Every structure is written in structure tokens, then in C-alpha cells.
């Protein structure tokens, strides 16, 4: 929602401005912000098949361009955060992370701990990163969220998207789609099996992928709330722990 998905390399400055002002108003003392690639990282990564790993020399320029596009988007976000008096500092995933087959293998966390300890707000993003098997890969913001929440022992995860939460089907195309207000990881695993193999539309597919990526954090008992960040005030309310429409994902009781 922080970019215009229809137009490559176009930020949604209004949304960025409003979101950063909500984050600022919430006065949260210890927070890590992570954003995705939107119409900056994705079109270029796709054009050069960066997600498939290194295949030939022609991708080398593509890797540089993907990284640069992510830095451009990140600058819009961080500039706006600083304008709202948030001491934001970018931590580039490509400089501190190596993946193996697209999964985080090594990540230097010390700068993150230091930033948090000193009261800064670290800002990370989905990125083109180096991969020990594939040469390079795309590391999604969602994988970063899950991994960092676990490593940094987060109290909770708040995900801002452009629909009200997790639905039973695509709310943009299916009038019968129902918002799931509460779900545990077992129900989510079942849902994954039901949907396994089905070519799901973008929103649900993207959402399911997002949610599955977050499962390790849920298993570590870190609650997740997914809210519609397009609706003014939702991110603020979620940050403040106030009641807000959305989907709460929590670890359920284990069934013997
Ligand atoms: O939007 C992908 O991050 P995501 C980042 O969180 C790039 O999947 C470089 C495409």
C-alpha cells in the first residue's frame, strides 16, 4: 500500500505520510519497521529473474537495479519517518544477511540490538540479497518480520495491508468472502492444506503466503494482528493495543 502497484517506481506518498504520522503519534518505545518492495523492487526483480538465483551475466545489472530501487523506496519511507520526528535508521538486509535457497542462513543482528537499545527505530525492507547456493535471491519483508520477531523476542507483530485482514477467499473478487477475525496456527495449517495446489488469486494467495511465512513466529507465541492500513487510524490503534477490525493470529492450545 506504500506504492502504486499499477505504476512501476511510483510511491504512494500520501499513504507513507499518513502511516508515518500514525506511527509517530503512537509513541511506541521499541519498534522495528519493515516494508516490502511494491512497484519498486518487484518489477525489476521479475524482469531479471533475481528470485531464481544467478544464471547468467545479464542478471548482474538487474541485481544492482533491484537493490537501488529498494533503496529509493526506503528513502521515501525513512525521510517521512524523520520528518515526523522518528529516529529511523535503515538496516539494509543485503549488507547483513546471507540466504541459502532463499531462506535466511546468516544475519548479523548486533546493530539491530544496538539501535533498539539506544532508542532508534530500525527500518528494514524486502531486498535482493546474496545466497550461498543460488548466488543471489529475493528476501521478502515477511520472512524478515518472522525471523526478526523471533530473534528480537518481539511482543507482537502488526501487519498493515490493503484489505481488512485474512479472508476465506479473495474479498476483491468474491462477494461471499468472510473476514477471519481470529485464527490459530492449527486452523491456519488446515487452511493451507485446503488451499494447497489451488491457484489462488493474488490477494488471498499473497495473504496466505504472507501468513505462512509468519507461522514460525506464531509458533513462538508471538501474536500477530493484520489490519487494513489504508483505513486511517487502524495502524495507530493496533500500535496502541486498541480494538481494531482485523485478523488476530495466535498460537492455539495443542491438541493431544
Ligand atoms: O515485497 C520483496 O519484498 P516483499 C523485495 O516483502 C524485492 O516480498 C526486492 C522484490
What is this structure, in a nutshell?
The chain is of the alpha/beta class and 256 residues long. 42% of the residues lie in helices and 20% in strands. The protein has nine helices and 13 strands.
Task: Give an overview of the whole structure.
It is a single chain. The chain has 256 residues and is of the alpha/beta class. 42% of the residues lie in helices and 20% in strands. The chain has a 4-stranded mixed beta sheet. Strands 8-12-13-11 form a 4-stranded mixed beta sheet, with helices on both faces. A hairpin with a 3-residue loop joins strand 6 and strand 7. 38% of the residues are buried. The structure holds Isopentenyl phosphate. Isopentenyl phosphate binds next to helix 2, helix 3, strand 6 and helix 6.
Task: Offer a few descriptive terms.
single chain; 256 residues; alpha/beta; binds Isopentenyl phosphate
Radius of gyration: 18 Å
Look at the structure and give the mean pLDDT.
91
Low-confidence stretches: 196-205
Major sheet strand order: 4-3-6-7
Amino acid at each position: 500500500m506504500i506504492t502504486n502497484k499499477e505504476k512501476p517506481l511510483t510511491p504512494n506518498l500520501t499513504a507513507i505520510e499518513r502511516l508515518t504520522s500514525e506511527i509517530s503519534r503512537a509513541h511506541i518505545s521499541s519498534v522495528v519497521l519493515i516494508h516490502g518492495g511494491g512497484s519498486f523492487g518487484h518489477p525489476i526483480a521479475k524482469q531479471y529473474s533475481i528470485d531464481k538465483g544467478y544464471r547468467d551475466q545479464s542478471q548482474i545489472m538487474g541485481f544492482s537495479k533491484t537493490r537501488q530501487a529498494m533503496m529509493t523506496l526506503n528513502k521515501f519511507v525513512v525521510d517521512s519517518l524523520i520528518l515526523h520526528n522518528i529516529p529511523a535508521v535503515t538496516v539494509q538486509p543485503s549488507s547483513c544477511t546471507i540466504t541459502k535457497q532463499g531462506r535466511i542462513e546468516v544475519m548479523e543482528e548486533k546493530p539491530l540490538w544496538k539501535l533498539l537499545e539506544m532508542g532508534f527505530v530500525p527500518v528494514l525492507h524486502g531486498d535482493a540479497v546474496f545466497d550461498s547456493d543460488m548466488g543471489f535471491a529475493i528476501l521478502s519483508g515477511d520472512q524478515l518480520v518472522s525471523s526478526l520477531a523471533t530473534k528480537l523476542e518481539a511482543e507482537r507483530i502488526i501487519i498493515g495491508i490493503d484489505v481488512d485482514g485474512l479472508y476465506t477467499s479473495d474479498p476483491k473478487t468474491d462477494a461471499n468472502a468472510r473476514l477471519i477475525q481470529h485464527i490459530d496456527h492449527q486452523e491456519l495449517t488446515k487452511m493451507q492444506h485446503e488451499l494447497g495446489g489451488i491457484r489462488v488469486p493474488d490477494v488471498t494467495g499473497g495473504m496466505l503466503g504472507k501468513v505462512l511465512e509468519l507461522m514460525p513466529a506464531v509458533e513462538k507465541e508471538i501474536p500477530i494482528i493484520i489490519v487494513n492500513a489504508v483505513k486511517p487510524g487502524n495502524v495507530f490503534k493496533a500500535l496502541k493495543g486498541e480494538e481494531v477490525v482485523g485478523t488476530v493470529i495466535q498460537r492455539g492450545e495443542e491438541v493431544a
